[in-house]
Design goal:
Blueprint (H helix, E strand, L loop, with lengths): L1 E5 L5 H10 L3 E5 L3 H8 L4 E2 L3 H5 L4 E4 L4 H9 L16 E4 L5 H13 L3 E4 L2 E2 L1 H7 L2 E6 L2 H14 E8 L3 H29 L4 H9 L6 H5 L22 H18 L4 H18 L8 H4 L4
Helix pairs in contact: 1-2, 1-6, 4-5, 8-11, 8-12, 11-12
The structure holds nicotinamide-adenine-dinucleotide.
Organism: Giesbergeria anulus
EC number: 1.1.1.31
Pathway: Amino-acid degradation; L-valine degradation
Amino acid sequence: MNIAFIGLGNMGGPMALNLHKAGHTVQAFDLSTSACEKLAAEGVAIATDAAAAVQGAEVVISMLPASAHVEALFLGNGTQAGVLPLLPAGALVIDCSTIAAASARKVADAAQAQGVQFIDAPVSGGTGGAIAGTLTFMVGGDAAVLERARPLLEKMGANIFHAGAVGAGQTAKICNNMLLGILMIGTSEAIALGVANGLDPKVLSEIMRRSSGGNWALEKYNPCPGVHENAPASKGYAGGFGTDLMLKDLGLSQENATAVKASTPLGGLARNLYAMHSIAGQGGLDFSSIIQMVGKKD
Ligand code: NAD
């Protein structure tokens, strides 16, 4: 199948590569030259721009930072033309970015007006899951469109959930990430408390992982350097899931909570803590670096 893949960052790069390895014809594009070079080195074809990438594509997959990038890619903005008008009727758009549900619906409506199918399919599972092809997809859109997309999603993920109509995948995703953001801060606090009392973070983490405090951070993504060899914490908090991306997701969950009059006090507190961490200059580090805010500095 001919696939255009736009956005080759920490997540999109390995996802596009998995589609390429599965035998699909992938035309990829990213604004970052180094992101393109990484994929080119693996044999993936790189287009000169997004418009060139979607030429002849039956499916367009996007993995971009935030709502503004996705809207600009498909619908255009003051400075760039959108690629949606370039797609023939019957094409399929799969947006895997984490964006506002309202933005997903806006792109879906424009797509529908020209006979193009759309699903929002944000993911969970981190860069490890993207590389291994074991991501969880949370899909919003028609069940029949999901079935059309499923064979491709199965090359990038292990769990595929239909959350509901267009936008529902995004709503599920921000609920999950609000919980993840809170859990990472709680996990960091607990480890920092143990370390301040002289406990070995590896031993404490293993005790909590197998006890009632067990969670995904303790399983796979420990915020303390040296506990999980492949976690961003053990690589200077490079790669992974940026603090600023977590801040964006907690902003989305807080905006949504305001809109539906839900009470999310810990989500609000977590958003502010990641904002302080970002303002302190750590926005580009993986979000697990939040442990630096709560840990003892000596
Ligand atoms: P990233 O910053 O590593 O990659 C984003 C890429 O998009 C960059 O390479 C950037 O150059 C490119 N880009 C931006 N605008 C572009 C445009 N107009 N055209 C082409 N390329 C453009 O981010 P990421 O970690 O890969 O995350 C991507 C999305 O996935 C975000 O919405 C994020 O919230 C979500 N997400 C990330 C993770 C994670 O663990 N990193 C996990 C789940 C979901």
